[in-house]
User: Fold these one by one.
Assistant:
Number 1:
Amino acid sequence: MKLFVLLCSFVLCAYAGVRLLDGDWVMVALWFVGAAVIHDLVLLPLYAAVDRVLVKGAGRRRGWVNYVRVPAALSGLLSLVWFPLITGRVSERYAGVAGLSADGYVVRWLIVTAVLFGGSAVVFAVRVRRGRRVSVGG
Amino acid sequence: MRTYGRHMPRSSLPTRPARGPFAPDFWRSPLRGPRFTSVLGVVLLAGVTILFVTGLLSYAAYNPDLAPVNDKTPGKGILGFYLFSWPTDPPWLYRLTQGVHVTLGLVLVPVLLAKLWSVVPKLFTLPPARSLTHALERISLLLLVGGALFEFTTGILNIQLDYVFPGSFYPLHFYGAWVFFGAFAAHVVLKAPVAVRNLRRMREGGDEDADELVAPRPDPPTVSRRGAFGLVGGGSLLLLVTSAGRSFDGPLRETAVLTPHGGPEPGSGPNAFQINKTAAYAGIRPAETTEEAWRLVVTGRSGTVRLDRAELLGMPLHSADLPIACVEGWSTSDQWWRGVRLRDLAALVGHEEPVDVFVESLQRRGAFRRGALRANQVADPRSLLALFVNGEELTADHGYPARIIVPAAPGVLDTKWVARLTFGEL
């Protein structure tokens, strides 16, 4: 059953794949497989390692790590998706094609990042204060 | 000790315990497990299905089977089996389907990343293949993961005009989608029943099964599973609120702070709405669009007519409220267009019955400087060769002296700087 499903799937993949590779097939194949390889062997280990360092660095205050982790992850996600606009590598084309300026993207990304970290800091401060009150009261 | 199986060379090193990522206790996160993966999997099952369907609709919206100029994938074969005449109603159809396609694609990025993170230990299994079926399954997973990342990456780069991918976007994204879908369908057939069973047991409050995804020696948790879902959902929400506004105008568009065609409108006044390609980029010289220089050449059954702008203005003018919707996912709300009906121009050259039209622009570059519209589009009374928008003449960037506007058509078929219309069977 499993084998049958896989073989059916390969027929469709091969039919479309031949057409996908019609052209600069080496580069297309490299992009297709490379996307998986770079994600699994570079991007994922990289952010996992950064996260591990963060958790280790927090030591006994592991509970606090999320107040850095969450805004950092969200900001990183935005930069991953919008890096062509944020880094300015497409600014010239964007201005020429769409008649719009791409200069604001890096600033807006920094503002969103600042808001995320700021919001996280506020939540953290509120919780610490509340925790203290509870422990004093107790 | 692990045994490596009989396919290992006879002279190989003595068997050692698996090390590094191949060792089960390398993976420490207490979050991983069939339930975490199942929830993300079910979200992706629904999301990717919508992406695939809206993608196929977008492909059909170009009417690739109408004329070679509309067809960027002439070798599609049976992959175009479902093609149909793209309708003109409702006029916001493409605005909706393509807005959903691109915005949903962005929103699913964190879900996809989390799903891949949740199953990454399975990448590192020894032996690499236990049987022929297992080997084929792993190849299928490479097509699945590679296909998903290929589709998301090419789509996200394309909407930012970052054309670094190896070839034209249309065939890469279209054929890539079919390869991805082939692997996706197999994955759904093989894994969806397991995922649904996991979710049902989760609702009933049963214990999680022992599974290869569950870390045998987990680290103490730093975040609950609910918290992890919150982070993924928060990422999706953040992408949604910084993107969705680009399908609307004014203050809503300004909320799309990190998305192309988000932020403030270009310029001011009645022509201050989004531009896909500027006149300068398209290579339009002001000298060729003056009243003296520009002529519209209309050809049909009864011959060829050349009209200057004054003659066009002398024809019956009609109005239509229609949006512009781009394949890149942004759109504008209705603009008030005014111009000559395409069917009146067809009648001028001897076509009283509905007929296709081949449209040519003055523009020197761009994959769609020539395009074809189908008879149902030409026949619609709202399909215009527009001369005015929102009560003023078109600006150069919006296609002065004249542009096509057709209800529900993708923006690239609303050809600007029109120079020639050829009516007849294509």
Number 2:
Amino acid sequence: MPRITSVESPGCPPLRAITTDILGLIKVVEARTRPAGVAKVVETWGEPDASRAILVASLADRAVDPVLAVARKNGVVELLNPLNGDALAAFKFSRTDQTVGAVENDPLVALHLFRKHAPDLTTLGTFLACTEKGKASVRSVAKENTASDSDVGPSSTWDVCNKGTLQFSSVDAGENYAMFGGNGMEVNLWDITSCSKMWSAKSPRANNVGIFTKPWFTAGTFLCKDDHRKIVAGTNNHQVRLYDTASQRRPVVSVDFRESPIKAVAGDPDGHTVYIGTGTGDLASFDMRTGKLLGCYVGKCSGSIRSIVRHPELPLIASCGLDSYLRIWDTNTRQPLSAVYLKQHLMTVVIDSHFSAEESEETKSKQPDSSMVAEAAVRREKKKKKNVFVEEDEEGTQMVDPDDCDAEAVRKEKKKKKKKTVTEDDEETQMVDPDEGDAETVRKVKKKKKNRRVAEDEEGTQMADLNDSDAEMYAPKRIKSESGERSKGTKKKSKKQQVA
Amino acid sequence: MAREDRKRRQPDGDEAADEGERRGRRDKRPKEEKPAPPLPSEIRNKEKRSEVYAKLKREKKAQKRRLGRERGQAAQRAAELGEEVPEKQVPRTIENTREPDETVCRPDDQELFAGNDADEFNAVLKQVVTPKVLITTCRFNSGRGPAFIKELMQVIPNAQYVNRGTYDLKKIVEYANNREFTSVMVVHTNRREPDALLIINLPEGPTAHFKLSKLVLRKDIKNHGNPTSHKPELVLNNFTTRLGHRVGRMIQSLFPQDPNFRGRRVVTFHNQRDYIFFRHHRYIFEEKEKKIVSKDKKSKGETKTEKQINCRLQECGPRFTLKLLTLQHGTFDTKSGEYEWVHKPDLDTSRRRFFL
């Protein structure tokens, strides 16, 4: 069998995954429906530089306005747009009570970007960061702060531990609780809003020979989406433990798995399955209700697994690690679907679940059916959103250097033209579809009107931008949020149509 | 079945007596007249069988030689006539039918160079730091182990032997780190025979674990030379994949990067089918006068002398073979270490798949 597993794989469903590596590169891997089942690198962001190695990354996986946060080795935290790789903000991470030079001794080990949208419009994102010595803090990045390289002050900060080194942290689905664990410290559960420790684990009793093992947790996650009380943690001496914080401090279930430390744990949306990866490249899934091994993922994986992500909807997981491969597995059959060689030691992988597969096909398909048209409309709106993003950025740059103004204006005009052509296309496709009922067409026309209104709004805002610089910070944002709502609405519609 | 097939292919001949008998047995084939010579494996008499087999082999060999000669003649003729010389046949080997591998490094890969600049060996290979190697053993070192270490110390300049005692390897790594060693080598012996080699790069790893086999010490090599204390030249062959590059660079970082070419000493690490062959040679360029008898008729019998430079090699041991078992991220830590590459049985899917 050849080493290139993509040949023998049954095919990978449309997917977009983003990996980060030790050279500070961010690589985007996409699998599309055409050609089917082959995942490949579509984009690489950043220059190779070892001092800017990415330690951790976190994606706020939203339909509207997603943000990717990466923490680099030199103490810089960056916020990026995961759709096009534009840097939204970058700032030096340091604590207020520390000097900047302390970053080397106390690197960031955990980062979580909150998925919930901040209520006020001035913030780009809020994240929980934790350093190796257990200094956790919640910070929010304001939009005014993007240009300045200064530090962002923490809104709240606390010490998770006073001894040992922290190795992981995980935030539950509701984003109210965070768990921490590491070498020489037990698993802790913290309330983020009040910054108070809720619960901490207790080591299991000494075994029958009387040997007591030092706590060393290497990975962990919350088991259920809607329940923050069940925690799964992997230890360095190859145990997977389930803690129930509501009942007791000692583990409820504890299972041994092979011989090497557990390096990655990921939960499944079904609420009882976890995926674990070890230091020798073994990947397995466990049912934590019983502690039974469901099965191993066998596929020539020979390097330590650093990160596992489960796709929120599709039954697949992505794993990456020191063997430089991003592997995508089917969770039902436990077969490898695809493997992409990414050349560097990979640190983290995140999956962008809002990736629409037919984006590439949009231009190719000549006679799309009704659902396709609806989806295309949704996508177009998304694209517009993107455009708004880009324009915003461009405006930002305009503020900085006015020399490039002309070129950008030309580009904008081009974009507008494109948009117009797109809407025309939409009309044409409608003309083509003869089967559709009148009601639907009416709805569509409405939608189109909406779209046009959005376009007009955009133009209006652009005009406003040229005149007034103060208004620009807020006006596009409003449109964005509105369009986001709209897109949700249209999505629902499209679903209905599909059902029909 | 094979016999029947053969008979069907060669039905002509004249052997009537046999035919009647056969017809009695099987009526389906009435027109078989001459039996084909039986396969050697079908002959029961061993002497006869070996005779027939030897004859077959001889014929095959002769035919092969004849074909080769014909090819050679055709090529020569083509060369004389100024035509295009037919392509020389290349035998198919396991190496040149190796399975395609996407991890093989390409010379135009900018990411590879950036990765190399960022790795742990860069300081040594860019000659910022001079390599300093600590050699130690497993806890019970006897038999050929000490002799092997003695020779290894002569191969690697700036190497230092440290008694293992009863220290943990982690303690020794710490000790070496404090004394600014750049690598630690551990020779492991089993049943008084060296069988494994561990190379730990300091201060941040990685750690490579090799199986060591086919060890021949210097005194067992015929006509061996004795190495000088010059810094050797290093030859690393066939490290093609990303993993191979990493291992190659790790080996490279054991040796100083500024060889004394006057010393005429070469250390070779040759990788073939994932086995790394170690050889240590001295070489010399010699000027030799060679007599050439000129072919012209006028100057018949006149001999010319021509100076020719040829190179001679002399092996000066030891000689051994390494095979990579694991490459671990970080310094030696079997319990909580992360592996960059582990050899697993499910990786061996084909004979034509190699990792280095």
